[in-house]
Predict the structure of FAD-binding protein.
Amino acid sequence: MLPTLSRRTLLQALLATTGAAVLPFSSRALAGSAASWHNWSGNQSAAPKQLHYPSKASELSQLLVNSTGTVRPFGGSHSFSPIVPTEDTLISLEAFNGLRDQDDNGNLTFGAGTRLGAASAQAWQAGYSFRNEPDINLQSLAGAIATGTHGTGITLPCLSGQVAGLQLMRPDGEEVTLTAADGDAFLAACCGLGALGVITAVTLRADPAYRLREHTWTLPLDEAIDFVNANRHRYRNIEFFAFPLGRTAIIKTMELTDSAEEALEQDDSNDLLEKVCELSLRAPWLTSTLQKLVTLFVSDEERQGPAHRIYANRRTVRFNEMEYTVPADDGLDCLREVCERIRDQDINVFFPIEYRYTAADDTLLSMFSERAGASISVHQYYKQDYQPLFDAVEPIFQRFAGRPHWGKLHSLDATRLRSLYPRFDDFLALRREFDPEGRMLNPYLRRVLGIETGGRQ
């Protein structure tokens, strides 16, 4: 199969391994019926007693007032951690969507359930671009900022750091507006894990519309690490995808361009990628060979166009993911150790490791709170047991003072997380103020925030 692949086709297939299109949740089960929910990869599910799809703030307020037990909102269902599931009440933000307002300073207000791809396209039509975006763009805005979702660029913030204002519905049904003038309450809500209430609208700071030129090519893994180390400050956006077993890497950079020329075409090779993953699953002894073939079939390519079109890639091949963010200056050393561990233990994983940079912000709980970070993401094909891979590399992340992505798999509890976040206890105090009865807390949030069931909230 592999010798027949075109260089362009394999490139798109390999880039597709680092993310996944968040498919809209299609069930429209009515509250009180046999409701069910599952996330995109299928590793998280729930059978709540109530599943609601409110279409306006007044309906949401009544739902919160009248519901009992735990309430959890969900958007694109792309989190791999158990941040959403509850046996009680799930609330979809799907109907809270679209551009609602804009001002002359580039502040754009969207319904919180708006998918990032739709929001960035609407921003472009209004003459703006978001300062940075991830390469998966079908998450809801509320879910993306709640978990610290990010793109790459050492001077560029995560989505939580681009928030100018929020509309937040407290568990008691009261809707409040939060901006920077509200101090720590705003900074907590910008990456609030859905623990303060339900976000109904998000205002993002945007830049005048800009265009990007993307350059993608391959190098041997050691050379790629050296290149990124030497050039991380040179490019607006830089990331790379490391194949530890094949000792190869794909590098991707983006720079601003004034050219009006568009070269946006991408081959859709997700079906091909699925076949390669299946082959690796059934014949693990071929995985290192498949990874080595990357440099034979991936060509040096460029494309350019509107920023939101360049950031995004179509993802359909499912996986499960662990991501930790370590101090930016320690990132490449940490990556080297992760690659060595995978090789030493001969762990069968075809998906590459994704490596990105993000600027520090002043939110209380984003992975970049008061510290610029290097994010290292490991993925395992959804049909494979991810535990051997994640168990092998997580101790390395922890030794480098890594902070886990809130929407991705990890094993840390509140004791360890408190040591990683200078303002952890400030967040807890604000959470108690917004939700004194702990209505928004499911078992995952109780574990990571250190709140016992039935204890002091």
Remarks:
- The domain at 210-404 is CATH 3.40.462.10 (Vanillyl-alcohol Oxidase; Chain A, domain 3).
- The two ends are 57 Å apart (CA to CA).
- Residues 49 and 88 are 5 Å apart (CA to CA).
- Confidence is low (pLDDT under 50) at residues 1-33.
